[in-house]
Amino acid sequence: MTQQPQQPGWNGQEQPGQPPQGWAGPGAPQQWGPPPQPPKKTGAGKIIGLGCLGIIGLFVLIGIIAAVAGGSDSDEGSKKPAATVGSTPKGEPGKKDDKPAEATKSQAQQFQACVAKTGTPTERAAVKHVTKVTGADKRNDVLDAAEVYTDFKGGLMSADAGQAKLIASAFTSCYKSDNGLVTVYGSDGDMMANANY
Predict the structure, then answer these.
(1) What is the mean pLDDT of each run of 10 residues along the chain (197 residues)?
(2) What sections of 33-131 are H helices per DSSP?
(3) Model-wide pTM > 0.85
């Protein structure tokens, strides 16, 4: 009696109706050994991890910009327009301590007062149309953006666009910034002119 060699998966514990491990079927080339492993897939965790890292980096960048923009409060006082001359010094007997007149004026009134002192006659006439000014009181020399609102109608190509350019020019004479932009708007909200200041 010839003894056949022992084949892997044939421990004598065959289950009826199931082919032994590695059995490919009759007539097929037989492959013995463990079945081939499927190729590894790129995990969604890696992709999500890189996306989360990008978002965290974005928040860090925003925090740095906010720290730089908010950290220059100490030198803001030197860039604000000076208080009016003639306010009484504190502690003088017999005189009442008043707030400086500049602090009680609106930004538009402060701008008009500045142009009245230093502007040309055409700039003074144009500035009479200013109804509101925002962003001129706080400057940090990083991204300063002031807005001047007027009672003019129309946009960049309107008949009053020249007047709006005079207002922007007058603004640059009154306010200084390392990186500022003033934009002049009409009463309908259309941009009419802008200038760096």
Answers:
(1) 56 57 60 68 62 76 80 50 46 48 78 92 94 87 89 88 93 89 92 91
(2) 44-70, 101-104, 107-118, 121-127
(3) no
